[in-house]
Structures are given as C-alpha cells and as structure tokens.
Amino acid sequence: MKRPWPPPWGRRPRLQPAPRPACRSREVDSSRRERVQGDPRRPGGLPHAVLALLFIAAAALAQRGGFQRAEQPDDPYERVADRREAEFHFIRLEYTDLPQFHRRFGRASREGMGEGWWVVDWPAADNHFTAGIQRLTRIDTGDPRHFRLTDPHLFDYPWIYATQTGWWNLSDIEIARLREFLLRGGYLVTDDFWGPDRTQWEVFASTMSRVLPGQPIADIVLSDPVMHVLYDIEEKDLTFIPGSRHLRRGSDGTVTVVQPAGTQPAWRAMEDGKGHMVVAANYNTDVGDAWEFADVPYYPEKMTALAYRYGINYVVYAMTH
To answer: CB atoms < 10 A from the CB of 239, how many?
Structure first.
C-alpha cells in the first residue's frame, strides 16, 4: 500500500487546539443506516440463552453514560461530524455479526443508535479520539468514517479500527480483502472483546488465522517500537482499561473500577511475515469506552489518558513504519 502522507515527525509533536467537531444529525442517511446483513425477523426464534445474552447486552448499552445524558443532553461529540478531507481519518470497520450473537438495533453510545456489534461506541469514541489526535500531534485529522472491507475506498486509508471482534463473521471475500489490506501496509486495531470464556477469543483467532495463515498472535513486548514510537508504554501500563459497565458509583459519589472476574488484560499483535506489525489486539480491555467517555466526570481520567497513548502510538506506528 502506498502511504499518501509524508511522515510529519521531524520533531516532537506540538500541542494544537482542537475545535469541537462540526456536526450534523446523529443518524446517518437512510442509505447507510447502521444495519448488518440478515433478517432479524427470521422464523424459529432464538434459544433462551441467546435471548438472555441479547437482553443483558441491550440493558448494558442502554445504561451506558446515563449520568452523562443528564449532565450534557446535547453533546456534539455524539453526532456525526461534517465531512472534511484530511491526511488521516479514523476508520471504523463494518461487519456482519455471527447469527447466534447478532446485536439488534439499539443504543450504540450515549446518544448514537445502530445495529450490529461493530457500531458499539459510535460515534462518540471516534469523534473524541480524532479530536485527541489533532490536539496531541501534528497529524491533520478529518471526519471519522465507517465502511465494510469491500468498500472501494479501503486502500485510501492506512488504519482501521474494529470493536467486538469476538462476534464478527467475515466472508471469504472480506477475509481476502483484509489480507490484501494488511500485506500492502495497512494496520488493524481490534478492541473490546472478552474472556474468561474462550468463545470470543477463539472466534477472533480463528478469523485471523484465515487472514494471515501461519502468523501467530503474540503478546507485544515492552521493547517493541509501537510501545515507544511517541509515548512510552511501560510495564505499569499493561493494565485493564475499564468500560463504563465496569464502574460502580458508591453512595458517597466515589467511583470504583470492577474488573470482570477471571479476566487478564492482554495487548497482543500479529506481523505480516516480514517482522512488521500489522494487527494490534486489545483483549480483556476497553480502549473504545475510554475514548467515548473522555469528557465524562465519573470516568477515570488516568484510564482515558492511557487509552489515548495506546491509540496514538498505533496511529503513528501505522503512518511511519
């Protein structure tokens, strides 16, 4: 893949003011409504266990940011940013859910709505992280975008983000497109998929074994360039970054982080066979929520700062290596 951006890293990035994003309605136009393939009204119904899972997931999403909605009822970061061409765009990957884990239409973030697991945290996480890149680096950032791997513009962008990849169901065509994207120099960040049950990890690992056959998924070592390309990630930073659902507010107003039982955060990666990292996998941790809730008083500020350091390092690495 040709990189159309000349590396702007002659000196350390300077701080730049980041204007709040110009926005339009929080719903995309009808031709790009946040849906995945498949008919949710298919006959036969779902097993009780799956229905229970969907109910729990929907309840969790509906609960996210409830305090914040009362505090900022008209948050511009919750709207779709106006289109603006630039050297970098946050690209969110659309995909079809595995049918047994399909997420129906509902709340995707504090105000965003959509269908499918790919849309979780949209558009707030995308907008907040984009503003952070603009503020903390010299990268010129445009509006966040989203599309499928079959989109003809895939190769115009060097960096894509996919969430909830323990539930994705890529077709053979999408597998081939993702392989080509990565082998031509693209970079994929996956986030917010969980144990301790092995199901989500096995779905992700099985998919990636089709994308990059024979390439292992390994823990990122602290000496790897991606851990120091801009911000220094240290051993203390290999920690659990919570989702909003992992926060508990006490009667005195204090917030406690509760890590899911049996989980251990892991920061893993895949290479292209030539020693070049092309996939970053954030497992048992929720970087997307830390971006989404960057302006929420009850979300731990240190966790948002850490999520920005990881994310910006991924972006800078993708654009310079």
So the answer is: 14
